[in-house]
Amino acid sequence: MKIPTFFCALFLMWAALTPKTLAQKTPLPKDLPPYGPEKPLNAPSVKAAKLENGLTVWLVSEPAFPQIALDLAVRGGFAADPADRPGISQLLAATVTQGTATRSAKQIAQEIQAAGGDLSAQPHADSLEVSTTVLSEKADLGMTVLADVVQHASFADSEVTLAKRNAADDLQQRESEPSFLARRAMARVLFGDHPYHVIAPTTESIDASTPADLRKAYAERFRPDQAVLVVVGDFQNDKMMDLIRAKFGVWKLPSEPPLPPVAAVPTEAKHSIFLVPRPGSVQTTLELAAFGPERNAPDYEAAQVVNAIYGGEFGSRLVLNIREDKGYTYSPYSYIQTRSAAGTIISHADVRNAVTGPSFNEITYELNRMATTSPTDEELTTARRYIVGGEAIQLQARSSVASELADNWIDGLPPEEIGIYGEKIDKTTIAEVDAAALKYFPAARTATVVVGEEQVIRKALSPFGLPIQTLK
């Protein structure tokens, strides 16, 4: 599951406010009425179908606004990359929309723009998505271009060369960011040699990748029996199904078997500190992670509520502690990230060098406090409202509805899951929160990655008695 862009935007808005501004709270009038009853999440109504070639189709008809979101997801993302081509999924996503047997990259761009949209592809741990949003009256054109791309991508030498150059520049830029260095190191720390350790290509894999490699990966992953097409917007179901059959019904099912499922992952993180040197850094990036619930786990929703109380919302315990009270950092946060076969709970903070040790101490304190201290009724209510309200806002965009439904299909969840999720969040009890917190949030379950000045970090963290290993 991807981290919702809505919550990322809210964190940026939160970071734009100064601690002084947030601390100056004007008391509300005493005669204000109480909160009204919380409205249930308005989940989309999905019509599910399957073509003879195995393509799953989920349709959400929402008349009125004349726009349609198309999202096609295939199984096989970074975790499916060959061992000698880690991160090739990024190149695959960058080139799959850049030409077919009958259309050049320029023609694809012109036609999809004539339909009122742009075509994009994104790689994830377990999938690759190709998506666009077009005008309802241009649904035929948008569907034609999408179908051509997912069935007949050509990977011309010139387009692959350009994508490789862009990927190399992108990697160089990302490697200058301590947050990326922390995420990449943490993936290796948690997953070792498991395919989930890949979150980006390497310089070597970019250099070595060829058009033939991309065509092979494309043939393995882009197959109808391992794909879902989600369509959300202003259309009639019967007419849309006729259009889909015309464009995708001819998609041939290959004779080769599909990619195998991802292997089982570790269940415990090594409780140590892993140091990524960044000479001359004036701040330290702290990232603590532990294994959490998978997306289909029965306590997934309870863990989301725990995370909101701990560090996932703006009034969380972590934010109030190390930002509002102590001023150690500008915008600390935590989140739950799920892959098809794993879940992780991640805490993140960028702090001044001088408060590296105190910040680590307070983060571990808040993790343990979460694991051992029940939330107040107000904390529970606020967290539930925050999660359900945020989900409701995000689902206002048809592209977000399509993407979330595609994610659910990749994770093996039914189309009704969006509504089920909202109901379970709204009904989460303090007892369920306590159980999930005790299970997933003790600091002793975490591995820590620290990026920054090595001598500063070793001096600040050595008093905690944990092994400190330098990563190259």
In brief:
By secondary structure, the chain is of the alpha+beta class. The protein is built from 18 helices and twelve strands.
Uncertain residue segments: 11-24
CATH architecture classification name of the largest domain: 2-Layer Sandwich
Structural class: alpha+beta
CATH class of the largest domain: Alpha Beta
Helix content: 40-55%
Note the quaternary state here: single chain
- How far the N terminus sits from the C terminus, by CA atoms, comes to 29 Å
- Estimate what percentage of residues fall within beta strands: 15-25%
Tally of helical segments: 18
Write down the Rg: 23 Å
What characteristic shape results from the CA principal axes?
globular
Q: What is the CATH third-level topology name of the largest domain?
A: Cytochrome Bc1 Complex, Chain A, domain 1
What number of domains? Answer: 2
Strand order of the main beta sheet, please? 1-2-6-3-5-4
Overall pLDDT metric:
94
The ordered string of helix (H) and strand (E) elements is HHEEEHHEEHHHHHEHEEHHEEHHHHHEHE
CATH superfamily of the largest domain: Metalloenzyme, LuxS/M16 peptidase-like
Largest sheet: 6 strands, mixed
Number of strands: 12
Structure in words:
44% of the residues lie in helices and 17% in strands. By secondary structure, it is an alpha+beta fold. The chain folds into two domains: 5-23 and 35-40 and 267-470, Cytochrome Bc1 Complex, Chain A, domain 1 (2-Layer Sandwich); 47-248, Metalloenzyme, LuxS/M16 peptidase-like (Cytochrome Bc1 Complex, Chain A, domain 1, 2-Layer Sandwich). Helix 5 packs parallel to helix 10, helix 11 crosses helix 17 and helix 13 (356-372) packs across helix 18 (454-461).
